[in-house]
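Here is one chain, start to finish.
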Amino acid sequence: MKTRKTGLQGSGELRQQAEKIAQARKSRMPENIEVLSPEAAHRLLHELRVHQVELEMQNEELRRVQEQLEVSRARYFDLYDLAPVGYVTLSEQGLILEANLTIITLLGVTKGALVKQPLTRFIDREDQDIHYRHRKQLLETGASQVYEVRMRRREAGLFWARLEAVAVQNAEGVFFHRVTVSDITPRIRAEQAERCATEELKKTHQALEVRVEERTSEIRILSARLLAAQEDERKRIAMDLHDGLGGLLSAIKYKVEAAQGLQEVKEVLPYLQQAIAECRRVQLHLRPSMLDNIGLLPTLNWLIREFQKSNPGLEIEQQFEIEEEEVPLSLKTVIFRITQETLNNIFKHSGSSWMHLALRNSNGALQLTIRDTGQGFAVEKESAVPGSDHGFGLAIMRERVEWSGGIFSIQSVLGKGTMVQASWPEEPRDVGLASDKNA
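Its structure:
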């Protein structure tokens, strides 16, 4: 351990003082020691021996005190310089008088660069008002102050510090301040991260609430449209039955009533055939029986042929790269309805002269793709308005696909066309065919 200079006097100074004291005592002693009686000389010798022993004991006490002082200073060094927090002692004017190794390391400077410097030199400019305010309160009230500021590290930039300042008075009545400095940067960063996460969570929650409200509104509009569509469908079926099948049956009735012979009965047959055809047309429009009897692929072929009859100028390409048994039973109605709805949208809105229909197995997923080269539309705008024709149809298709465990997507570019795509995993969700068969 390095020896520090103590407050004890050196041997040279003690020698000079001893000579002065001896000279003063000499004036009080007899000029000639030989004239002393044996008893006096014996007493003098005894006094000298006792004084010598006393000096030796004082010297031993001084040595012991010096050792204790060294131990205390070593302990002070351990407690002060090696403390886990920074310690600085400030004058009443705010200048640094003492600093331990921890604060030196925190600030990245030498001890010489700290002593006699104002502590504000190492506090960030934006936080110096905080320091001045607490220092003023400390001077006025004497109450300890705790505050947080950003301090400047020499090469590593700013760090957050927690300062605790107390006022102290020494034996001479001089006031000074002791300040502990703790690096709290990890805590501040954790708090900032927590605040950011909380704010992000709040934004996400708000966005979710908005989305829930939007979806609730969409569901209400969709439910209203479904009811309206149901009424329109009932009205259309009623009109088909009244104007088509009903008229034919009435004509048959009149013919039969007016028939007088076999020839007149035979004239009823064409009307019966028309009635049967009309009945089949209404049935197929509601739900084609061939979907249950012969499967999805033949039904899609029939649907496309019927669609081309109504749109002779439309060229349709089919690409079925899948076998009938590869299509799960639970998805056949869903795929048929998606295709039917898309064809209706192309007929009503697209104006396309070409369409491509593909059904394939893509990386283990069943995928339906329908593309056209029509006028296209703004998907986001139409999807945001469920009450529009496009928005209602898109909502119905998306609900069907997602309800059956699939993924629905649509891409459209104005003037270039639209692509509708739906895909399902290997094991799609059971969507309850019995209810759809009765739809």
